[in-house]
Specification:
This protein is an alpha+beta fold. It has a single domain, classed as 2-Layer Sandwich (Ribosomal Protein S8, Chain: A, domain 1). Helices cover 47% and strands 25% of the residues. The protein contains 3 helices and 3 strands. Strands 1-3-2 form a 3-stranded antiparallel sheet, with helices on one face. A hairpin with a 2-residue loop joins strand 2 and strand 3. Helix 2 crosses helix 3. The longest helix has 17 residues.
């Protein structure tokens, strides 16, 4: 395996974005693991620059439709989704 250049790494980072499906998959994995450990609340964080607002809205709506209480927290460079169940 060869090491990519710093320029290539920057270009990759600039192009990266998270889809609603990718966010929901991360949330689902966290809910599953944490609920089995006895937790009734999780906070999942994402870099704000890779999250599209319409995708985030879809994630929020999807979770609420499943009965979760959802709060979106915007902390500058980060977006956190607080989920209670």
């Amino acid at each position: 395996m060869s090491l990519i250049s710093a320029q290539e790494a920057r270009e990759n980072a600039e192009k990266f974005s998270l889809s609603a499906d990718e966010m929901l998959k991360q949330v689902a994995n966290s809910i599953s693991a944490n609920s089995k450990a006895g937790n009734t609340e999780i906070i999942v964080g994402f870099l704000a620059k890779v999250v599209d607002q319409s995708e985030l809205n879809f994630v929020e709506k999807s979770l609420k439709e499943k009965g979760y209480t959802v709060e979106i927290l915007n902390h500058g460079n980060n977006i956190h989704i607080k989920i209670n169940y």
